């Protein structure tokens, strides 16, 4: 926790977000009233905000804070975000090279060229727990895993990128934000920390 000038303690949290949860605490949209929210996972203090988002079907590392300045820092291009994506098919070296160099995706009704990034095929399947909603099994064709590290975060960017090179994402897990790693955190586990980047 960090002390504000007005003596209110800032609080920071690290979460392994489960599949099927929205990265928010309340929903004013009636159609979403039955959706699962982050507040169901832990007794977060008032004014806690998710830093950036993972969409409902994505999993993994999500940072939360009561500190707006910390939120701005983590969302900035100064901080890398690494994702493991399970894709439909055995991703080719050519496709990985395209991801590295940047691909064209749709964003807010416009065409957008993603920035160059780090990407590589994972030769060993990540040892993640089973997802609550099963991925289709190998009888429907092989799958593979790729690591993609970004310094930007457009809406559903990883999914759009892998689709653009012909390998749609089946499962997406964020495993690192800056120096913070998912490691052995259990699905739904929350850890409080004094500082994200000491």
Structural commentary:
By secondary structure, the protein is mainly beta. Helix content is 13%, strand content 34%. The protein has helices at 68-75, 93-101, 157-164; strands spanning 2-3, 9-10, 12-17, 21-22, 36-37, 49-50, 59-65, 81-88, 104-107, 110-113, 118-122, 143-150, 169-177, 180-181, 190-193. Strands 3, 6, 7, 8, 11, 12, 13, 14 and 15 form a nine-stranded mixed beta sheet that branches. Strands 1-2 form a two-stranded antiparallel ribbon. A hairpin with a 2-residue loop joins strand 9 (104-107) and strand 10 (110-113). The longest helix is centred in the middle third of the chain and has 9 residues, at 93-101. The chain is globular. It starts with a strand and ends in a 5-residue tail after the last strand. The mean pLDDT is 90.
């Amino acid at each position: 926790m960090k002390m504000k000038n007005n003596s209110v303690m800032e609080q920071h949290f690290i979460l392994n977000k489960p599949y099927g949860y929205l990265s928010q605490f309340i929903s004013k949209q009636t159609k979403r009233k039955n959706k699962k929210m982050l507040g169901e996972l832990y007794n977060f203090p008032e004014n806690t905000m998710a830093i950036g988002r993972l969409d409902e079907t994505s999993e993994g590392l999500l940072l939360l804070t009561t500190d707006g300045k910390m939120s701005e820092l983590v969302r900035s291009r100064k901080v890398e975000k690494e994702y493991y994506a399970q894709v439909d098919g055995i991703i080719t070296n050519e496709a990985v090279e395209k991801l590295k160099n940047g691909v064209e995706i749709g964003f807010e009704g416009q065409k957008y060229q993603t920035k160059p990034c780090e990407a590589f095929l994972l030769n060993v399947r990540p040892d993640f727990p089973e997802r609550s909603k099963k991925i289709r099994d190998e009888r429907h064709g092989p799958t593979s895993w790729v690591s993609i590290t970004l310094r930007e975060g457009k809406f559903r960017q990883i999914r759009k990128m892998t689709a653009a090179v012909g390998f749609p994402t089946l499962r997406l897990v964020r495993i690192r934000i800056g120096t913070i790693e998912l490691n052995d955190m259990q699905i739904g586990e929350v850890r409080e920390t004094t500082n994200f980047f000491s």
